[in-house]
Design goal:
Protein name: Transposable element Tcb1 transposase
Helix content: 10-25%
GO molecular function, one term: nucleic acid binding
Number of helices: 2
InterPro entries: RNaseH_sf
Shape: elongated
Distance between the termini: 24 Å
Number of strands: 3
Structural class: alpha+beta
Largest sheet: 3 strands, antiparallel
């Protein structure tokens, strides 16, 4: 019974795509004993990096179109801009 119900499920997620070479995380590549060497730290700009938010849904027999999310997403916008036009049809 659960296999039939699982075939009807749609899994959704959103993701941010960074439009620069870095995503705001500091990555450090070093060998043992080089813990705080300046040559091992990548210095970067600390301001917000430009990017876009996208949303998608996948089901057993279907998938939704990739949707760009502009602005802040609250529960009412999630329903009216994503679920109703992309998942319900």
């Amino acid at each position: 019974m659960w296999a039939v119900e699982c075939n009807e499920a749609v899994f959704t997620d959103e993701s941010r795509i960074c439009l620069q070479h870095h995503d705001g995380w500091i990555r450090v590549w070093r060998h043992r004993g080089e813990r705080m060497l300046n040559s091992c730290v990548m210095h970067r700009h600390t301001g917000p990096a430009p990017g876009i938010m996208v949303w998608d849904g996948n089901g057993y027999h279907s998938r939704t179109p990739l949707v760009r999310i502009a602005g802040t997403l609250n529960s009412q916008r999630y329903i009216s801009k994503l679920l109703e036009p992309a998942v319900l049809p």
